[in-house]
Amino acid sequence: MSGHSKWANIQHRKSAQDAKRGKLFTRLIREITTAARHGDPNPDHNPRLRLAVDSALAGNMTRDTIDRAIKRGAGELGGAALEEARYEGYAPGGVAVIVECLTDNRTRTVGEVRHAFTKHAGNLGADGSVGYLFNKCGVLRFPAGTSEDKLMTAALDAGAEDIVSGDDGSFEVLTDPAVFHKVKADLERAGLKPESAEVTLRASTAVALSTEQAPAVLELLEALEDLDDVQAVYSNAEFPEAMLKAS
Q: What fold is seen in the domain 84-132+206-237?
């Protein structure tokens, strides 16, 4: 089993940003609509849609709202089609950043993303400029107090790639995205329900920031997350522990 993961640090308090309920709901609805538009509108036959629906339910979105988003994506209701776009660049200090968007106007979106990078001393790069530094993986998080032996046995039997323990006693189960839903279902059948579960991007290497560098990087990441068309922001920034504890 791997040692402590600093992902809560590297991901720079994503959960705190997601606490903005209105923004979170907008992102979830867009993801549900897009997943339904590009695949089967039945979540049981569409892993991406299943994950989006599960995330929406975990965020206390109503079934009616979810069903409307699926119908809109399937073409049963009106609404502009959204296009996926990904932008890559650098924050101050050489921090790699990936910005995932859903948009009905690429020109507007790239302009807003470029403006955020420029305003906060970053640089928007070319496609592929930092993407090679990140890996897509499934992450299932379990709270402190979870039986380590039970979790390890069930996770490995289900096909998980690794289990990471945190200093606070929590655990993360890491999976290949292709088997994420199978692993999640198998763990739940074993009585192990994750606190959260997502398919995300993780950096292979981190950039440790000084207390002087960190505020500027955080300002850029938060400015990007606040853009209407942005679905997710990933970076390989490792913020000073003192800064995170103070926030």
A: Alpha-Beta Plaits (3.30.70)
On whether the CB atoms of residues 93 and 238 are closer than 8 A, the answer is no
Give dist(CA 158, CA 162) in Å, integer: 11
The domain spans of the chain are: 16-73, 84-132+206-237, 133-203
Beta carbons within 10 angstroms of residue 107's beta carbon: 8
Helix (H) or strand (E) holding 119: helix 106-119
Q: Is the pTM of this model over 0.90?
A: no
Reported as a single tens digit per residue, the pLDDT across 164-203 is 998 889 999 999 999 999 999 999 999 999 998 989 999 9
| Residue 239 structure tokens | 């913020």
SS3 of residue 64 by DSSP: helix
Per-residue pLDDT of 37-71, as tens digits, reads 888 899 989 989 998 998 888 888 889 989 989 99
Residue type, 29: I
